[in-house]
Amino acid sequence: MPTVDLSSDTSTRPTPGMRRAIAEAEVGDEQRGLDPTTNRLQDRVAELLGQEAALLLPSGTMCNLVAVAAHTQRGDSVLAHRLSHVIRFEASGAALASGVLVDQLDGPRGQFDAAALQAALAPGSVYFARTRLVCLEQTSNLGGGSVWPLERWDEVCAVARAFGAAVHVDGARLGNAAVASGVGADRWSAGVDSVWLDFTKGLGAPLGAVLAGSAAFIAEARRYKQVFGGAMRQSGMAAAGCLWALEHHWDRLAEDHERAVRLAAGWAEVGLAAAEEPETNLVFVDPSALGMSPAGLVERLAAEGVSVVAVGGQVRAVTHLDVDDEGIEGAIAAARRVAGRR
Ligand SMILES: *Cc1c(COP(=O)(O)O)cnc(C)c1O
Question: pLDDT exceeding 90 applies to what percent of the chain?
């Protein structure tokens, strides 16, 4: 029985074309700025995001780590949604490396609004930390792959900036947001101080994330890249995969979104309803209606050849480059068998 891997969009493997591009990449010493393919990727991402400069880093986690370091001083506060990757999945990296207080905002679907942000901004005094940075995640992973409405996004950015805090965008899936909303990645990045794209999620590259911002910000980020051991050598091997992904895998993210809607509809029919209609490529379901725990459903689907994960009290399925229509129908049939046998 073939496995349908819906565990994450990081499961994607480089395609034959991408592998060829990687094999043929022109390379040099990246640490000295001499890798032509890396330089080309950085220019391309800066342009895509409407920023002055960009920097290739080994991972998205390092983009967040470097950005927080570059934007803050020890003792500052950073605001992020309580479900954000920065807070949930980075092993306290921001606190550990930058000595900041990471304070949590709340709101539905991994998003907060301008009023919540306004109330949480701390001015710096004998008692209060100074809020120096606000982090936004687009799309919100634990928010169900939700896309921030543009109006709320602009309001939140305006409130942060009026206060004097920088805005940082965790754009691990910004491509999904751009494709789903029809609002360009440059528009989402227009009112922010730093933003990054992950190439190892739905874009399907094996390695790399690119952080963008002003030339001054990127110069500072480059120092922290060195500090954290993220400077590389012939990183053109990674950059070539990322360039291939931008060229060939960006627009097709729409197919992943269609398949997520199809999967959610099929699962709803067998009693596994998603709390919200998927907006992008993530489908979250609560298996309690079937009398199962998240871990229980994960195990039973695995026995049927479908790989998903338990996250935040729910089960998450992710559509991506390596899952086709047949895979989705297989995942629906598997859930039907699991539900029928409970
Ligand atoms: C995956 C992810 C990251 C981290 O990216 P890596 O490349 O895995 O380090 C950060 N933020 C969000 C929202 C993610 O989904």
Answer: 94
CB-based burial label for 139 (10 Å; 0-12, 13-18, 19+): buried
Q: Can the peptide bond before residue 139 be classed as cis, meaning omega within 30 degrees of 0?
A: yes
Ligand 1 atom 5: the closest Cα is on which residue?
A: 60
86 alpha carbon – ligand 1 mean position (Å): 9
Q: Which of 309, 317, 243, 245 is nearest to 280 (CA)?
A: 317
Per the prediction, the chain carries an average pLDDT of 96
Q: Does the pLDDT of residue 92 top 90, yes or no?
A: yes
Nearest CA to ligand 1 atom 6: 60
- Verify whether ligand 1 is closer than 6 Å to residue 209 (CB atom): yes
How confident is the model over 40-59, as a mean pLDDT? 98
Q: What pLDDT is stored for residue 2 in this prediction?
A: 66
Residue in 141, 176, 196, 281 to alter for ligand 1 test, most ligand atoms within 8 A of Cβ: 141
Give 341: exposed, middle or buried? Use CB within 10 Å, 0-12, 13-18, 19+: exposed
Residue 61 Cβ inside 6 Å of ligand 1? The answer reads yes
Specify the pLDDT at position 76.
96
